[in-house]
Amino acid sequence: MPIHPTAQIGNNVNLGCRVTIGPYVVIDNSVEIGDDCVISAHAVIHSNVIMGQANEICPHAVLGGLPQDMSFDRQRQTYVKIGDNNTFREGVTVNRATQTDASTVIGSDCYFMNGSHVAHDCSVGNGSIFASGVAIGGHVAIGEKVFLGGGAMVHQFCRIGSMVMVSGTVGVLQDIIPYTMVGDSPARHYRLNVVGLRRAGITGKRYKLISTAFRRMKNKESLDDLDSSPEIDYLRTWLAEDSTRGLSSFLVAS
């Protein structure tokens, strides 16, 4: 287990097998790091971070920092929980949660490009990608296989459904419906994420059902009589959940 002699590792740190820790890494007390993780030079992992296997933490990334919330009580025991096979590129920051025993949660197989930020109490689904400079505010919920373009900003308490693509530099101020592409500023839905759906193997009747659902939502029509599919079931469940911010609007074709 190669640990550079300049690294500083706190108490009650549980390191898995074949973990690599580079020069000047700082790992605070009470951290769990799974097998085959790589922690590169100058990265900082604060207390109460729990990560799975094969994560790559690049130089100057900071995981588990205090929430950027003026009312946060530093004595609260809160966490960051991370799955497997994630990449955190240079300068990425992830803040821990604000409420006792709560967690900021990141799934597996995600890719966070340089300078992106995940705020307190957020959840990020499996396979999501944050391009350079993306920032999401507190209590944001990101679904699976979401792509956020460079410089996109997401307001606190927003929800973004699975398989959404957000254009670069867009400001997301309200919830984004699953399977869609959004642009403009503030963000508005303009069509389905055709490429993302195809890559996920959603074709044929399954794709046609999503297309019908999108058209109906755009026209403010009911989805009640649509046939069931995994995607439609997820969409119905997602739409039925409480929304703090409400839904983003639709672009109207000229």
Give the secondary structure arrangement, pairings included:
Layout: E1 8-9, E2 13-15, E3 20-21, E4 26-27, E5 31-33, E6 38-39, E7 44-45, E8 49-51, E9 56-57, E10 62-65, E11 79-82, E12 87-88, E13 93-95, E14 103-106, E15 111-112, E16 117-118, E17 123-124, E18 129-130, E19 135-136, E20 141-142, E21 147-148, E22 153-154, E23 159-160, E24 165-166, E25 171-172, E26 180-183, E27 188-192, H1 194-199, H2 204-218, H3 230-240
Parallel strand pairs: 1-4, 2-5, 3-6, 4-7, 5-8, 6-9, 7-10, 8-11, 9-12, 10-13, 11-14, 12-15, 13-16, 14-17, 15-18, 16-19, 17-20, 18-21, 19-22, 20-23, 21-24, 22-25, 24-26
Antiparallel strand pairs: 26-27
Describe the structure.
Helices cover 13% and strands 27% of the residues. The strands form 3 sheets. A 10-stranded mixed beta sheet has the order 3-6-9-12-15-18-21-24-26-27. Strand 26 and strand 27 form a beta hairpin. The N and C termini lie far apart (61 Å). It has 3 helices and 27 strands. With 254 residues, it is of the alpha/beta class. It has a single domain (8-240), classed as UDP N-Acetylglucosamine Acyltransferase, domain 1. The model has no long low-confidence stretch (mean pLDDT 97).
Descriptors for this entry?
single chain, 254 residues, alpha/beta, UDP N-Acetylglucosamine Acyltransferase, domain 1, 10-stranded mixed β-sheet, 9-stranded parallel β-sheet, 3 helices, elongated
Rg of Cα set = 19 Å
Put simply, the count of helices is: 3
CATH fold category name: UDP N-Acetylglucosamine Acyltransferase, domain 1
Structural class: alpha/beta
What's the total count of β strands?
27
**Helix content bin:** 10-25%
State mean pLDDT (0 to 100 scale). Answer: 97
The CA-CA distance between the termini, in Å, is: 61 Å
Biggest sheet: strand arrangement: 3-6-9-12-15-18-21-24-26-27
Strand content: 25-35%
